[in-house]
Amino acid sequence: MRHGALPAPATTENLDAVLVSHLHHDHADLASLRRLDREVPLLVPPGSGDFFARHGFPAATELAPGESAAIGELTVTAVDAHHDGGKRRFAPDPQAIGFLVSGRHQVYFAGDTDYFPGMEDLASDLDLALLPIWGWGPNIGEGHLDPVGAARAAAALAPRLAVPIHWGTLYPFGLRRLREGPLRRPPEKFAAAVRDLAPQVEARVLSPGGSIPLA
């Protein structure tokens, strides 16, 4: 069940590209993607191109870790992620990836991942790291960063700014009344852990759907 308001229509207008980290339904929802212009380029993980083509997305380009695509003045590079790729029909063995977006600023979008050796070598001089801090529902499964793990990632990556993502939006129907904590508290724990583990990093908590300019 979705909590919070739907994104404003302007959020998905005039997109240059869509980055799909893996095929789990909360990251590759076909109904949501079908609301976009079908000619918008999709940058997708290895093993998923046929899946998107069969569902009517002709502009899907697979990127393996280390491969890049030019989107206007930006360069988008796929990087490793330690997470199940999310098997779907027509995608028997997909991979999960993260993304580095480089231009005037450099942004790391982790998708879904656990901490892994070498994360500190993904990029230098990061302006922003978008770090997942929870899973789906009340429990966090394998292959996910929790708030402390995400703070550890922030310490390794050393971005100027770290924003927690993957929290506060999807939760089982009716469970909020019984266990609201996992829906609301992870960003508070992340911000506190960043202060302890990565005091040089600014943790900025945005409500789901929020935005921040990069000066």
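Above is the first protein from milestone M3; the second protein from the same milestone is given next.
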Amino acid sequence: MERSLVLALLCLLWISACSNPQSQEVAPDVAAPAFESPLEQRSRIDSGRVETDRTFEDLVASYERPDRSDWQKPLSVLPFLGEHLADKTIAEIGAGSGYFAFRIVPFAERVIAIDIDERMLQFIDSCALIYLPDSMQKRIETRKAKADDPMLQTHEADVVFLSNTYAFIEDRVTYFRKLRDKIKPEGRLVIVDYKRRRIPVGPEASYKVPLYQVEEELTKAGYTEAYANDQLLPYQYILVAVPE
């Protein structure tokens, strides 16, 4: 009961800080509700182990820092997921508190919010019940993953999306090689992550993977680069790749 009450209160605080996602249009530089990156301070998770020295409430509060939309520009990122999302399944690996999942669900047929932290999945479920209309609640699903397995079925996703997550996956070439057949034919992989330079947000430098290294690793994993952009976002790059 206590946990349910905490989740409800956190969701209400989230709602009070956010505009209705139904009213948002996919357009460049439109302000959006803000969370701290679900994996921005990824010390809480190390090889599948969740940290215990920070409370869940502290984590959610950190994800909700009000300046994130200024540099994350979520509504400028969404078009990279592709056209005609209304008939597509988007799987987000490392969904955290749902920063992107709640922004994608108004446009997609289905969103699978994947994380290894059960608390974050419960938070997303609670917020969906309180915040989303019935029709949208049916579109979002949470799924607990393993550190080395996103728990997706073969050809389950049209798009696999990762934001601020790539650097924290171990043995990435093997991971993304296994991920290829989880993406439908003609589907895509979209990665947003931090540039490896001095910036005021993101994890320490050792957890930042430069764009060229991501490109090399995905090539080894069996993907072809379709598009890369390191200019749109001030602190991050965007990479779109397709399975060969």
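Note on the second protein: The chain has nine helices and nine strands.
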